[in-house]
Amino acid sequence: EVQVLESGGNLVQPGGSLRLSCAASGFTFRDHAMSWVRQAPGKGLEWVLGISGSGGSIYYGDSVKGRFTISRDNSKNMVYLQMNSLSADDTATYYCAKEVRGTAGFGFQTWGQGTMVTVSS
Amino acid sequence: QSVLTQPPSASGTPGQRVTISCSGSTSNIGSNAVSWYQQLPGTAPKLLIYYDNQRPSGVPDRFSGSKSGTSASLAITGLQSEDEADYYCAAWDDSLNANWVFGGGTKLTVL
Predict the structure, then answer these.
(1) CA nearest to A35, candidates A13, A8, A18, A57
(2) Contacts of B47 in chain A (CB under 8 A)
(3) What is the pLDDT along chain A (121 residues), one digit of tens a residue?
(4) DSSP label at residue A87
(5) What CA–CA distance (Å, rounded) separates B71 from B103?
(6) Nearest CA to CA, how far is B14 from chain A (Å)?
(7) Is the dihedral of CA B44, B46, B51, B52 positive or negative?
(8) Which of A47, A64, A110, B15 is the most exposed place for a label (fewest CB within 10 A)?
(9) Contact residues on chain A for B101, CB-CB shorter than 8 A
């Protein structure tokens, strides 16, 4: 069964940092781009950033450029989201999503159940 | 303000046909594939349509997608109560900062 499973969500103070992890299974991991998509409470979906299957291309959403980074370890079938300089606007459920192809832009085929990040003092 | 524009709400009665529109521009819908997602209350989004009109296995053929120019549509025929959910369109955007863009979402109510 194809699965992606996020972990690492937590309560963090403004200005703090957090790293989310996403464990993938059931498919050839390196053949698929991966993205992080977030959803603030009661709001719509917002794409955060993505990485190609090889890890050679990284794509950033405007709202997180310079603060968030994405990486992947194809030997461990893992994707990571490093979040720095967090603010209340970053409070959201963060979803890890497997894309249809190895390059970004064709659809989010599989989603995790999400992990909640709350930024508050 | 979402890059892709969807109506905030739609409704229909059981058995009816409902369409949800998604309007964009030449840098996103006009030049890239559109995908659609269904989000049931309290759950993660689920892929309904990709490559404009392709259904993943397991998605009923009551759901169909189409695209013309810089607009796309999701049609649901034979509406059922379990279709009550939020629906989102998405497309890759080739403008200055290549990235994914989403519509603001449409809340579908089955009356």
Answers:
(1) A57
(2) 107-111
(3) 999 999 999 999 999 999 999 999 999 999 999 999 999 999 999 999 999 999 999 999 888 988 999 999 999 999 999 999 999 999 999 999 999 988 888 999 999 999 999 999 9
(4) -
(5) 12
(6) 26
(7) negative
(8) B15
(9) 47
